[in-house]
Amino acid sequence: MSADGCCRSLCLLVAAGQRADCTRFKPVLEKIRVPWPGSGRPREKPDSLAAGKAYSNGPCREYPRRLGIRRMIPEAADGQAARLRKGSRGGRPPRLRRGPLRGRP
Fold first, then answer.
1. Residue 48: phi, psi to the nearest 5?
2. pLDDT tens-digit profile of 11-59?
3. What is the DSSP string of 51-92?
């Protein structure tokens, strides 16, 4: 499910309970239609995206980047540990603006 900043539903996709949520990330983003304040055809791309640590893998970060969507996805602890373990070959950590994520569990 995806929702806007006011918690109104934008898209709902039902899948089997044992499937990982990150496998449904791309289909959910493709189904989003952002309504305009007035009349007209809805936009197919949101301005920004906030997701949980479960979506911090490569494909979930790369797909919105390719579409030009700003994303706020915190890095999972195991991803941080793996990057630090690799040392200089671990790459740069993803940039995260903390302001919009305040108050989230």
1. -145, 170
2. 777 777 767 777 888 888 888 888 788 888 888 888 888 888 888 888 8
3. --GGG-SHHHHHHHHHHT-EEE-PPPHHHHHHHHHHGGGG-P
